[in-house]
């Protein structure tokens, strides 16, 4: 019995698919015997060992069915087009270098000084009458 969903997606919140996943895990762990008393303890909600055992019978039966449906030469499908994620810090960050204009490094204080000098020169030209 295939999973509910399309051929490319599985609805993991579907109860039938969750039960199938549990059965597949049980089938994959051959020789493992779950401790139903501990499972009942972790499950909580007043679950008893007997109740867990009854539910596990259904899971075991489905696991046997999955084992019989799956052949030994079955290959797990791989999603096409999947690519590896690039690590966030894969490369060492490099500081940005600011190229100087006309091979002269200009600092903010020099720029302000130059602007002030231009204003004073303009004012001096205006006062002397040399302004255009």
TrEMBL record:
* Domain of life (superkingdom): Eukaryota
Q: What is this protein called?
A: Myb-like domain-containing protein
Query: Where is the stretch described as Disordered?
Result: 62-93
